[in-house]
Write a structure and sequence with these properties.
The complex is a heterodimer. By secondary structure, chain A is α+β, with helices and mostly antiparallel strands. Chain A contains two helices and four strands, in the order E-H-E-E-H-E. The model of chain A has no long low-confidence stretch (mean pLDDT 95). The chains are: A alpha+beta, B alpha+beta.
């Protein structure tokens, strides 16, 4: 599973970091950090929740 | 009303005085309702609005503005319409995502969650100063004197304007977003002129000082390049109209109306007062139940399907946000105000490319306003007979709510 961020869309809202804190975080400048670009399968439910919760629709997952 | 005589027009007197019963019929019978005179499909169910606004393929754009009036909509488009000019550029929100996205990012930094959190003390000072002035009066207007002035003051501090401008900002924004009682639309040209007149001097001064990045709201736009050229002062001011209006317009009406709903339900008011941890959930319910902004329009760029209905390029799609917020398919007993309702997803701030850029500020400011209100006001009474909800096709919210308060030490309402 690969996580992709559309950086043109990301506002740094941080919703993904709440849904999947092991995969996403915000730094001190409110910039999104992808902690795991290829998260393990065990993280799939959290990652999918993050993708669907992103209000800017900036995230996607490739299998 | 019978099946045949139902009609929905967002600019009709009926819709402008109370659209909620109309939304109910739309959701039940016509999930994609065609308004022939505007060549527009109205979406009323949560899932359909969510899906359409969440489009990331530039299929549904705000090319004609998100709040066009009936005169514009009466002119039908024979097919896809071109993007608006970029030299000079008007509101960036009318542009496709490759132009809109970078301009949004160029001024959005101070509205990101960490940056907003760092302004909480300043916002709390604005709120407590305002309460210090108002509470001894014992009678005032909850929206015009309290939440409106607080929001306009916060908007002023975002733009580094003296707080003395708050009343002017509030009055200008309220006047400019008011819809024409007869024709029904918002005069966007006049709105942009009035608001840019407030912002442009700030931009000019900042350009003269030299934007070093420490005033990110403006500096990001001064550094922005569009087709390899900088933006003029007026163009920068235009891109910030949404921030100024958004910061001033909506939150005061949401929180004012929300406090009115709580006052009507003493048991809920007591439950919310009992614990500061109950403020964030009641605020979310206020955003759902009390949101004044009724709808946003998109123009179709490519053939697509909404709510099962094929739409063709040039047609419009109307996202009825407040209908979605009352959708029985999404919320249990949606017409009830419940402070502790589960709200797993919300459309109160929109969704997708134009998702409210001020969401974090709105949540923090709303929370601080409520925390301080409950801390300082042991009891209050709303004069519902004198409260005013002006008819509107767009900002249908409670703009005037007279209130009488008890204060600490004088715990009796006058």
């Amino acid at each position: 599973m690969k996580v992709a961020v559309d950086w043109l869309r990301c506002d740094g809202n941080g919703v993904c970091a709440v849904e999947a804190p092991e995969v996403f975080d915000l730094d001190d400048a409110d910039e999104l950090i992808v902690l795991l670009a290829e998260p393990p399968e065990s993280q799939r439910p959290q990652v999918e929740a993050a993708v669907s919760a992103c209000p800017k629709r900036a995230l996607s997952v490739a299998d | 009303m019978s099946r045949t005589d139902f009609a929905y027009d967002p600019f009709s007197p009926e819709a402008m005085s109370d659209p909620l019963p109309l939304y109910k019929v739309l959701r039940e019978r016509y999930p994609a309702y065609y308004i022939a005179k505007y060549d527009t499909w109205a979406l009323s169910r949560f899932a359909d609005v969510h899906a359409m606004l969440g489009d990331t393929t530039d299929t549904f754009l705000s090319t004609e503005g998100s709040l066009p009036g009936p005169e514009l909509l009466a002119r039908h488009n024979p097919g896809a319409i071109p993007d608006p000019p970029t030299d000079p550029i008007g509101l960036h929100t009318t542009q496709p995502s490759d132009v809109h996205g970078p301009i949004r990012q160029a001024h959005g930094r101070p509205l990101r969650p960490g940056a907003v959190a760092r302004t909480e003390d300043d916002v709390r000072r604005i709120v407590t100063d305002r309460l210090d002035e108002l509470l001894p009066r014992r009678e005032f207007d909850l929206v015009q004197d309290f939440t409106g002035i607080v929001a306009a003051s916060v908007a002023c501090s975002l733009f580094r304007l003296s707080l003395d401008h708050a009343r002017t900002v509030l009055d200008t924004v309220n006047l400019s977003t008011r819809t024409d009682p007869v024709k029904g639309g918002v005069n966007m040209k006049l709105l942009a002129e009035r608001i840019t007149a407030l912002i442009e001097p700030v931009v000019a001064q900042r350009r003269a000082e030299g934007g070093d990045g420490s005033f990110p709201l403006i500096d990001g736009l001064l550094a922005h390049r569009l087709d390899d050229r900088p933006l003029t002062d007026h163009e920068v001011a235009m891109q910030l109209v949404g921030v100024m209006v958004g910061a001033t317009e909506t939150l005061p009406k949401v929180v004012g109306h929300g406090l009115m709903e709580l006052w009507r339900r003493p048991d809920q008011l007591a439950a919310v007062r009992a614990d500061p941890a109950h403020v964030p959930p009641v605020l979310e319910e206020m955003f759902r139940y009390c949101g004044p902004a009724q709808w946003f329009l998109r123009t179709v760029r490519r053939t697509a399907t909404v709510a099962g209905q094929p739409v063709r390029p040039g047609q419009r799609v109307l996202a009825l946000i407040q209908s979605a917020n009352r959708d029985e398919r999404e919320f249990d007993a949606p017409d009830e105000f419940r402070w502790n309702r589960e709200i797993p997803r919300t459309l109160a701030f929109g969704h997708g490319p134009h998702f409210c850029i001020g969401v974090h500020l709105a949540r923090m400011e709303g929370r601080v306003v409520l925390e301080e209100w409950f801390r300082r006001v042991p009891a209050y009474e709303i004069d519902v007979d004198r409260a005013v909800r002006r008819d509107s096709s767009f900002q249908w919210g409670w703009g005037e709510i007279p209130v009488r308060v008890a204060t600490i030490g004088t715990e009796r309402i006058p």
